[in-house]
Amino acid sequence: MIPDPPSHLPPPRPDSRETRPPKSKSRIAYYGWRAKMWVEGTLVLHMLEPWEKLLLLFIFLVLSSLFITGLIRFLPHHIAVMQRRTIYYIWGNTSSSVAVDDSDLSRAVNDFTTRSEL
Fold this sequence. Notes:
Elements: H1 27-42, H2 50-91, H3 102-117
Helix pairs in contact: 2-3
């Protein structure tokens, strides 16, 4: 039988305490633990050090915020352009009451950005 390490030494590696289910009987804690294990097992995050997990999380948050910002700022204009092209390809002209004017769209985007900056 292997004796327990002395208490003044750090815990042995790999430390499997994080993979054990929570001791509380709360269903929320249990399902949170299951979700964490599923994400770490799927993305192989369990083999990373804690600082590497934080770095990966930071990179993911930055990239997703850039993606969402791009969707909010540029997707409305792109949808208007695609709408005009679709109208042109279907009916053969660009003078339609359905088409969105660029000046109206830019005015709406400027109003939205000035409101969000306040």
